[in-house]
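Try this one yourself first.
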């Protein structure tokens, strides 16, 4: 089900089941396989598939991809930043890499005749969400943010809530503690100014940023991680503090629950305030929104 893109310095990928290949760029956007079927078989013209750009990199994006992958009336394209070395093969046509800021995304929307955008990026991916809001407004393309509600503190939780990762470093205190870091690789270097702690870093791939923390232990794992595994790791490594962003969602919640059970203090980085945009937290609402933004035949 290839979709050819006409713009961008980014890699252009077409995905067909498990096979993923790089394709040449063509001058016009694809009409999709169903338009092609209609043309070649002389069948009744089908409804024009809505050309949907999904900004991904999250489990929400994964759920949306799964929901639209077999839809004949939706022509989706998944966009990934390319941060993960070995992303799971996409079940829909996909592209990898930045667009080149607001202007690049604007060009992409118009060159690829995108009808609607679902921003299903992580709640802490501030830049791409801000860019999407500006580009969609400029290109007059409807935008929906698909996100998960933040985690709420349970009365049994021992949380220290902070606004930034820098503040999380301060919250660890001056005494040596054993700290599990799960806030993401980009902010690992911030902890270098508190070298008194013993750090356990959990990540999907080995982050080069871990070199800033000599002596840190690396645990490689891709979520979702089971509660029992979180508890075992925290117990075996005698974790005293856990650092996390308030990502929300079920996929990474087990660490919060494990910390509660074991009495581990959690330093929680609050969410940034995103751009004001129409927002949905349920897949059914996203699908209804897509339906409502289908272009007129
Ligand atoms: P970010 O700071 O908001 O974005 C930085 C730049 O990366 C953007 O300006 C854009 O480049 C490019 N980019 C980001 N997401 C993209 C996407 N889905 N498709 C194409 N380009 C994208 O993003 P981030 O915090 O580094 O996160 C990168 C990706 O990882 C996101 O897709 C996000 O969903 C996922 N993720 C982030 C976190 C987190 O904690 N931040 C956690 C889990 C997953 P251009 O300006 O060149 O277009």
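Now uncover the answer:
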């Amino acid at each position: 089900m290839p979709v050819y893109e006409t713009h961008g310095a980014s890699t252009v990928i077409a995905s067909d089941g498990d096979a993923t290949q790089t394709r040449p760029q063509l001058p016009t956007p694809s009409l999709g396989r169903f338009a092609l079927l209609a043309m070649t078989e002389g069948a009744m013209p089908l409804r024009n598939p809505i050309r949907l750009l999904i900004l991904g990199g999250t489990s929400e994006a994964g759920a949306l991809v799964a929901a639209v992958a077999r839809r004949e009336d939706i022509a989706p394209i998944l966009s990934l930043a390319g941060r993960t070395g070995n992303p799971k093969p996409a079940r829909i046509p996909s592209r990898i890499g930045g667009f080149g800021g607001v202007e690049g995304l604007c060009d992409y929307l118009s060159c690829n005749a995108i009808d609607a955008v679902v921003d299903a990026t992580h709640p802490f991916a501030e830049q791409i969400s801000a860019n999407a809001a500006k580009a969609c407004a400029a290109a007059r393309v409807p935008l929906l943010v698909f996100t998960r509600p933040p985690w709420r503190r349970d009365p049994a939780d021992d949380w220290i809530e902070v606004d930034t990762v820098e503040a999380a470093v301060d919250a660890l205190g001056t005494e040596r503690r054993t700290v599990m870091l799960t806030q993401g690789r980009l902010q690992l270097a911030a902890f270098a100014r508190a070298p008194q702690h013993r750090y356990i870093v959990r990540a999907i791939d080995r982050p080069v940023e871990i070199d800033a923390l000599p002596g840190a232990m690396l645990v490689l794992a891709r979520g979702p991680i089971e509660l029992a595994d979180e508890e075992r790791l925290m117990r075996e490594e005698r974790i005293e503090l856990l650092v996390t962003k308030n990502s929300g969602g079920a996929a990474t919640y087990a660490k919060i629950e494990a910390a509660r059970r074991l009495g581990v203090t959690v330093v929680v980085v609050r969410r940034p305030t995103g751009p004001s945009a129409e927002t949905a937290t349920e897949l059914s609402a996203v699908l209804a929104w897509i339906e409502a933004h289908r272009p007129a035949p």
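Discussion: Confidence is low (pLDDT under 50) at residues 1-43. DSSP finds eight helices and 14 strands in the chain.
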